[in-house]
Amino acid sequence: MMGQKLKPMEEILSYLEGSKKIVLMGCGGCATVFHTGGEKEVEEMAEKLSKEGKQVLAKIKVPLDTYTCYLPMSSKYIRKNLDAIRECDAILMLCCGDGLQVVREYLEKREIFKPIYPAVDSLGFFGGGPSSFVEECQGCGDCILAYTAGICPLTRCPKGLLNGPCGGVRPNGKCEVNPEEDCVWVQIYNRMKKLGKLDEFSKILELKDWSRMKRPRRLEVERVKITL
């Protein structure tokens, strides 16, 4: 999931300076899990903005398990609120940056041009839950988990070492950079030992193809037949 946290209210209000009529939109996916844009958070933001003298024209609450960044799921909630969107001075998105930009492009294709602002900072891919999350994947486009016992050293190692551990690993197996964390390469070693694959640990991994990180990346998949 896309880890995220709510921006400070002072920053959000600075975006909305000069804007009176506001439309809010949340997300039933990652933003609900991280308590940044679920139905509850949309209501709370509407209340805060009202106290600041803003007029909230619409509170677009996207239901649980419905992702704002995926238009076949979210577009119907946008369409229901197009009148309010046309009337508003600004849109405030309580979701990740992907969701914001998907909504922006959707509206632009319908010749609706409104300022659209983020209420959330996106932090990257996180796994775990239900309350404790760890960044597990950086979406590098060249996955090496098959060679590292299913644990990503590039994400979990502060130095991003492709081969390890480094010379600074502590005697107790803790990380040199963060003594509160277990060295990821020690974790990889221990897991390979349990799997009976220690012979693979000494294999040197080749340089990664970082060209797959070139932005923007695009994916083409079979089109979903649905009205957007």
Report what the structure shows.
The chain is an alpha/beta fold. The chain has helices at 9-15, 30-33, 39-51, 71-79, 82-87, 97-108, 153-156, 184-195, and strands spanning 2-6, 21-25, 55-60, 90-93, 116-118, 120-128, 133-137. The chain has two domains: 2-125, Rossmann fold (3-Layer(aba) Sandwich), CATH 3.40.50; 141-213, no CATH class. The protein is built from eight helices and seven strands. The protein has a four-stranded parallel beta sheet, sandwiched between helices. Helix 6 links the parallel strand 4 and strand 5. The two termini are 24 Å apart.
Multimerization state: single chain
Strand order of the largest sheet: 3-2-4-5
| CATH class placement of the largest domain | Alpha Beta
Number of helices: 8
Find the CATH topology of the largest domain.
Rossmann fold
Bulk shape: elongated
CATH architecture of the largest domain: 3-Layer(aba) Sandwich
Provide the residue-averaged pLDDT.
Answer: 94
Strand content: 15-25%
Q: Note the main sheet.
A: 4 strands, parallel
Structural class: alpha/beta
Q: In whole angstroms, how far apart are the ends?
A: 24 Å
- Work out the count of structural domains: 2
Query: Helicity, in percent?
Result: 25-40%
What low-confidence regions span 5 or more consecutive residues with pLDDT below 50? none
Based on CA atoms alone, the radius of gyration comes out at 22 Å
The secondary-structure element order is: EHEHHEHHEHEEEHH
Number of beta strands = 7
